[in-house]
Amino acid sequence: MLDHCAQMLENWCWEEDPLRKLSGHYEDISKPLPEALLQSMIAAKNLDSGLMTLRQIFFGKFDLTVHTKKG
To answer: Domain range spanning residue 21?
Structure first.
């Protein structure tokens, strides 16, 4: 159950309004993050998702190769 809750929270906290409400400057939490930084964070959210997909494809191909080897 906790894992499902964590996944839910992962998604909604990257929406612009909640992220703006949850974030603040590390030295003074009452100061909001600059708009440019906020937009950069949202844009970079899925930065490595392509690499993670390729990683899973590699594991699948390796598994098929190992388990279907003839001889």
So the answer is: 2-67
